[in-house]
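Protocol step 4 of 6: structure prediction from sequence.
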Amino acid sequence: MKPLISLFVFAMLSTLAYAKAAGNYVQYSNFDPSQMTRFQNVTKLACLAADNIVEIRINALHNKKASSYVAVFNIIRQGRATEEANNLLNSRLNAFVNAVKALGIPPGNVHVDMVNFLPKYEIDATKKLFSKKTYTEVPKDSEIQKNVHIRYADPTLLDKVAGAAAVQEIFNLVRVDYFDASSSETYEDLRWRSFDYLAKIKSDFRSAGIALDSTYVIAAENTWGAFPGNRYESYQAHSTQAFEPINKSATVTTLDKPISRFYTSTRQVLCTTSVNHA
């Protein structure tokens, strides 16, 4: 009777870094090297599958440059009257848009949209003779808010655009969106590269005397993308003195601690192909 062979193969390509260093993120965050997210879903050991199945998983990753970007800046201004608030905002907004166009960004790539136009209220307290004090909401001023969407192809322009915004006291960069004009071609390339690598693995099995001939083959594919916006992590790097020795009646004033952010190395899989041989 011919023996049955059940084998599970997991292939992963990685880059080894021999220089070892750690920064403040490791020191001042709840960092546990044994629980690093990038390795949580990676099977460490090859396991034998049941029912005489050989499962081969191929993870293909393509780190692609975006074809264009859209930066969104938010502007808020307040004024005693609606016209005053609108004029205050438009004076800074128009100067910012003109500066952006001077950087070589076409007028058609700059879009301004209205977010809200709201009245602001305050509480007015009045006291009449022989009556209780009453509190009434009265109009205080108006608030207007707009967003500026700027589309550009050269990523180095963002620093100049942000500088032009700072000159006009616009400091709220809401987000930066990334666009890929040829994502279908990228997924197609990943698919065929996965198939080519699968053919090589099957050839290596045959060379080792393990035949992967099967009556049927089951294949599954999953494709998805990861963007830089959700690749940032944050921490606070500071050492605070314990307050226990201080007199309990004393008032302790703390300072706002800056939040540091950094971009983590890519660990997402864009294309996964699984093939089962039974």
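Step 5 (inspection) to follow. Strands lie at 8-10, 54-60, 68-79, 110-126, 134-152, 172-179, 217-223, 232-235, 260-263, 271-277.
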